[in-house]
Fold this sequence. Notes:
The complex is a heterodimer.
Chain A: H1 2-25, H2 35-60, H3 68-95
Chain B: E1 2-8, E2 11-17, E3 24-28, E4 31-36, E5 39-44, H1 49-52, E6 53-57, E7 70-71, H2 72-76, E8 110-112, E9 117-119, H3 129-164, H4 169-173, H5 181-201, H6 207-229
Antiparallel strand pairs in B: 1-2, 3-4, 4-5, 5-6, 6-7, 8-9
Amino acid sequence: MREVHMEIVFTILLGILLGLLAPWWLSILHELPWSRVSSVILFCALPIVGGVTYARKQRFRGKSSEGQVIRFAAVYWFVMTLLLAFLSGVLQAVRAPETG
Amino acid sequence: MRVYNRAMGNTSWTSVEDYLPAGSALGYDQNWQFRYSGGELLMMGASDRASSSAYYPHDSGQVYIMSEPIPCNCLFQPQALPPCRPDGGCGEDCSGLASDLPYLNSSGTGGFPQFGFTTNHYVVQAFILPPLLIAILRGCAAGLGADALIGMVRWLGCALGALVLKKPIESSCGSFPFPGLCDMVASCLTGALTGGLAQKLFPKLGDYIRDLISALTGAFAGGICEAVRAPTPCPQPAPNPPSGGTLGPSTRPFPAV
């Protein structure tokens, strides 16, 4: 149980860090209302809720819940970052002037 | 391993033999010396083998790395220790033996347990340094790769958007992104550090998840480099105020005093 708590703390800290840093270079996040707060919710709150739910589900299935929060969060972060990077690229093209 | 069982009247006689690859064996009377890849095993006297056998481990360069031999009891049954050592130090246990042995601690686990690298092999191998280097290099590579991948995905999104909107790709998105020196150093260092930290905190975490975390933090560090490198937009010149306005410097001559 202590291990799971440590995982949650690690995920929260890393999620806050990623959420604060993301708007620097993923420009699509500026389009969200309260971009900093939204980024932190996107990178911290959602993976925590999802990870804990996933870990509980795994435990009910009789599997070990150890490492499941971080596993869920890591996959979520990676997919989310790729998606936001793609959308940032599209936004860059939309905002580019018509002629070079 | 060879197990031999033979019935003898109402009872049976069983022998279990295990074989180790031995480079050479030297025997004299009841004393035997076996040399193999991980060290040297001495068996002195057949009468009381448990207390008179000892193991001298050496490293991959054949250098002996312990000042005192390890009793075989400590090697083979670390949790159930006899109170005596071969040199007669009765009352001591095996816990004190591991002080100068980095790869074999008192619980019988080898490696660097404090960094999450463990092994159940008691034999000295050249495993001490490579896992550390491999973990660092792996984290570094993951960070570098993810930084390049995310830059590429963003450029592809931009190129795709530009194509759909019929805008020139080169002027809209720039040239294909290759990581610069700042990106490479930042993503490599951050990936390696985060991988090491995750390894230390959660040793049971799978390699791929650890790589994914290294990759993410590496990509974010590279992204910060990119953000820092991006040109700061020039401040727009303020529009000229309408004539007779109250803002801005006046161009009319001062009234004569």
